[in-house]
Amino acid sequence: MSQPMSASDQVYRHVRELILDGQIGSGELITEGQFVEATGLSRTPVREAFLRLEAEGWLKLYPKRGALVVPVQPEEKEQVLEARQLIETHAMTTIAASADAAQALRRRLLDITEQMRVAMDAGDIETFTTLDAEFHLVIVNSSGNDILADIYRGLRDRLRRMTTRSVWHDKTRMQAIVTDHTDLAEIVSQRDVAAFSTRLMEHMRSIHDRAHRR
Asked: Fewest Cβ atoms nearer than 10 Å: which of 50, 139, 167, 198?
């Protein structure tokens, strides 16, 4: 039987979700008082949650002023993109060995892409970005390498935040992501590892370079 979340855990998850979804923007200053008022909790659990978020690199605390949401740094973006390309390309190398596996993966990826299209038309940013992360995780999982899959899952929060920042209120960008995913699914079925790796990096840079400029 799972234990109920502590008040500090509740605040931690709440603030973290707001950061990951882009509802609290990079560089924005927030205060303990905001979340004391929003949650009805005392300052102690809010302060504990802020300290935990600072330890994880999401916030930078300034005494008597508040907490700054740490922006995504250019070097972090490059490191995440490089890690993604390495892991997903390795997965594609494994998948390409079997025509049946490649076709099955294509069908799964196109199904996720269609769900993304529905979420986009509904203006459901949260579902769209969740499905975007799932699209890529399905590719990695299809390789059967559990260790790489675990590493990739560890990137999901960073990926989610970066993607949310790039598509927020930008339907043109969301449409481009859907098109890119359709292309990647078709390349998977062709079992062309080099083309997949190239198209993947084009896809990622198109999204995140624009996000950084914004």
From this structure: 198
The tokens describing 76, both together, are: 């972090």
99-122 helix and 125-141 helix, angle to the nearest 10 degrees: 170
160 with 168: CB under 8 angstroms? no
Contact call for residues 184 and 102 (beta carbons, < 8 A): no
Q: What is the mean pLDDT of each run of 10 residues along the chain (214 residues)?
A: 78 91 88 92 94 94 93 83 94 96 98 97 89 93 93 82 70 92 98 97 82 48
pLDDT of residue 214: 46
Domain holding 36: CATH number?
1.10.10.10
Q: What is the SS3 assignment for 12?
A: helix
Q: Report the C-alpha gap between 131 and 29 in whole angstroms.
A: 29
85, 132, 159, 180, 205 from 213: Cα distances, Å = 21, 21, 17, 20, 12
Q: Which domain holds residue 184?
A: 74-213
Record the pTM.
0.74
